[in-house]
Amino acid sequence: MQKKLTLTIDEDVYAGLRQVIGPRKISRFVEELVRPHVLKTDIYEGYRAMSADRVRESDALNWAETTCKDVSDEEI
Asked: What is the CA radius of gyration of the chain?
């Protein structure tokens, strides 16, 4: 369920939000910024979920190995 919230902000900030984020998208933007500060999540559960994603882990490993190879080819 959603609740309506009225915020008072500087006119220039509001104009910037409309320009950068876009009209009708400001509420979602603000919620995504605020959510991690007010809803405590189990960071370890998030890490477990990421490590269970085999495709993601494979991509991460490939990226890490490629990066190491690039660095090892550099002359000192």
From this structure: 21
Q: What is the pLDDT of residues 55-75, one digit of tens each?
A: 988 998 888 888 876 565 566
**Which DSSP state fits 39?**
S
Per-residue pLDDT reduced to its tens digit, 12-55: 999 999 999 999 999 999 999 998 888 877 778 888 888 899 99
- CA dist 71 and 65 (Å) reads 10
Burial 13-44 (b: 16+ CB within 10 A, else e): eeeebeeeeeeeebeeeeeeeeeeeeeeeeee
Q: Alpha carbon of 75 to those of 63, 65, 71: distances in Å? A: 21, 18, 9
Q: Do residues 18 and 26 make contact, with C-beta atoms less than 8 angstroms apart?
A: yes
Q: What are 10's two structure tokens?
A: 């500087």
Q: Residue 75: count other Cβ atoms within 10 Å of its Cβ.
A: 3
